[in-house]
Each structure stands twice: as C-alpha cells, then as structure tokens.
Specification:
The protein is about 20% helix and about 35% strand. The protein is of the alpha+beta class. It has three domains: about 80 residues, 2-Layer Sandwich (Alpha-Beta Plaits); about 140 residues, no CATH class; about 110 residues, no CATH class. The strands form seven sheets. The chain has a six-stranded antiparallel barrel. Strands 2-11-13-12 form a four-stranded antiparallel sheet. Helix 1 packs antiparallel against helix 6.
C-alpha cells in the first residue's frame, strides 16, 4: 500500500507546487451560511424492528399522543407493537431559501430499534434554535445498512438505525436574512494563510481595476479579505464574478501520518536537510515445545514433563541511506530506497523531525 502511495506522490511531484483554483472553492462569504433544524418524530411501518415500548417510554408516550390527536384514546392500555421507532430528524437549510423549497433530512433512531428499513416518517416539525417551526418533514426513510440475525450468528452492514429522506422536508417559513442585508463583503479562507489571502486580494483588485476603476479588496488578516462592492452593481452578480477568479493558494509544509492505517501524506513544499538514516528490525521468537520423559518399565520412576525452549533472534534491515534534498521527489525517493513498511516510515520521519532535519510540521493522528 505504501509503495503505491509513494508512486502517486512521485507522479504528483512532477506538477507545479501549486495549482490555480477558484476563489469560491477556497473561501466562503461571511454571513452566508447554512442553518440547522431539529425535530422529534416517529417512524412507522417497521417489520417488528422498532422500539420496545416497555424500554423506550418516550416512544410509547409519543405514540399515545399522536393517536390521541387523531381521536383514538389509548391512555391506560398496554401497547406492545414493535413497528414504531422514535427518531431525531435533522436538516441543514441552505441560505436564502424560500417557503416551498424542499430539503433533505437525516433520521436517526433514539430508542432500541434494530433497523429503520422500510419505515415511514410521519409528519414532524423541524425547529430552529429560536424555537420556531421552519419546515415540516415526512416521507419514506432510505437506509443503506441492514441487519440479519439467526440463533447463533448475526450480520450487520453499515448502520441500519439511521437513514435519509431526499427532499423530505418542505420549508414553511423563510430563514431570517437576505443578501441585501450583508454589508461589506468579507471572504473567509477555509485554510487560513497570509500568502493566500494576499493573492486573493491582488486577484480581486486586478479585476475591479479593469472593470470598475477601483481597488475594492483589502486584506484584514490571514483568514479574511474585505471587499467593497462598487455602487450601482448587482451584488449577487458581483459575488459570482469574484468567485470565478483563479488564484494559486499557498500552504505550509506539512507531513500527516495516521499511525492506525499507516497512511503518510507529504505536502509538496516539504524540505529535508542531509541526514544518514538506518533502520533495522529485530525479531525474537520464543518457542516452547515441552517433552514427556517416560521411565523404563519396572524402574519405579515417574513420568515428568521436561521443558524445551528455543529462542531465535532475527535481525533484518540496518541499511544506511543518505536522505536529503529540497523537494518532495528527493525525499520520497530517498525513503523508498530503504524499502520500509508504513510503520518504519513513521518512525523514520519522527526521528528526522527530532533531529531537526525535517523542515515541516509533523502531525501524527
């Protein structure tokens, strides 16, 4: 796996250190964001895979309240159905949506339901942080996981107690806020960097100088770039035009390692000073093969177990290699010459960082 990663890294090293991307892909407009909604509801129509009403009292209470609103009195009766499950319904509302717009919702089980497959979410109100109802959700729940169980074995694929309803919620109220309410435009970088913010500022100023005869952008810090919209210009069109401008983002030299999977990701600008690296593996194998000592007939002896221990020591590796160079290509080629496994690469990079030869941030996850 790691050799494949090295090959890919060498292939990408042939390209430039940066690639031009659109401003809209590396930044977001301050004040233009999603809003989150939350609701509590019931999923019905399950095939005996819902909540156990005796254990999930909130499911029983919600079911009784729903039936009571429909004119069916079940107060005081013992309900034993397992075709109902209590769920939390969540949704992300895009900015500037209007009533009548449909959005996706996510449904997650609250009780001890086994699976939501085949269930239908009944009418559920989705509220914002202010307690107001902004959307109504209802529909068939699509579940990607499943669970099959027998007397001695069970199989579970993905998560059968969570699902989605595409276009399952209908907006009933507009979320407060309008594009015209946004004052000065502020573009916030998703990966803050002073050099990237400077390049974004220069690209916007170059565009506004050509079309409007003014320098509209100014860099506030490593994250934010303020832009003054020209007068008598459609703000939505102006934002769209700025978003299509291309810049080359900068990023710090960084090495990210995942100790669990062995994945190592090295950014293009990683540099390493000249170091000599050696790495060897010592394997100690202890084998116990006890033997039984049987006395001769009529010798009045006794049978005893004689221990027999074998210790084998195997030392591999130990190759010394010179690793140096100002580029990712040289670094990857030097590490590849040693022929290490991912665990060895992680140990080597940590040792090089400790020696002060790795000119990059080392992140171990």
């Amino acid at each position: 796996m790691f050799r494949l990663c090295l090959v890919l890294a060498l292939c990408f090293a042939g390209f430039g250190a940066d690639a031009a991307v659109r401003i809209k892909d590396i930044s977001s407009l301050q004040g233009v964001r999603d809003n989150q909604l939350l609701g509590y509801g019931l999923v019905v129509g399950l095939q005996n895979t819902g909540d156990t009403l005796l254990n999930s009292t909130f499911t029983a209470q919600a079911l009784a309240s729903m039936l009571d609103r429909m004119g069916i009195n079940v107060r005081g009766s013992s309900m034993r159905t397992r075709n109902v499950a209590a769920v939390l319904v969540t949704a992300d509302v895009p900015p500037f949506v209007t009533p009548g717009t449909r959005i996706d919702v996510t449904v997650s089980s609250l009780g001890d339901a086994v699976s939501l497959m085949g269930g239908t979410l009944v009418l559920t109100s989705l509220n914002g942080v202010d307690g107001q109802t902004y959307a109504i959700a209802q529909g068939q729940v699509a579940v990607s996981g499943y669970e099959a169980a027998g007397q001695a074995e069970s199989v579970t694929e993905n998560v059968p107690t969570a699902g989605r309803i595409a276009n399952g919620a209908l907006m009933e109220r507009q979320v407060p806020g309008d594009l015209q309410d946004v004052g000065a435009l502020t573009f916030e970088l998703k990966n803050p960097d002073f050099a990237t913010a400077e390049r974004v500022t220069d690209a916007i100023n170059s565009f506004t100088q050509r079309h409007f005869g003014m320098a509209a952008a100014r860099q506030r810090d490593q994250r934010s770039v303020d832009v003054d919209a020209p007068p008598n210009v459609n703000k939505a069109r102006f934002i769209a035009e700025l978003g299509e401008l291309e810049v080359e983002p900068d990023m710090p030299a960084r090495v990210v390692m995942d100790a669990r999977s062995g994945a190592v990701v090295i950014s293009q600008d990683v540099q390493i000073s000249t170091v000599a690296v050696t790495y060897g593996n010592i394997t100690v194998r202890v084998t116990e093969t006890p033997q039984v000592s049987q006395p001769a007939p009529f010798s009045n002896g006794r049978t005893v177990v004689v221990p027999n221990t074998q210790v084998n020591v195997d030392q591999s590796g130990g190759t010394i290699a010179i690793v140096h160079g100002p580029s990712l290509r040289t670094l990857v080629a030097g590490l590849n010459q040693i022929g290490l496994k991912p665990s060895g690469i992680i140990a080597i990079l940590q040792a090089i960082k400790a020696a002060g030869a790795l000119q990059a941030d080392l992140i171990v996850e």
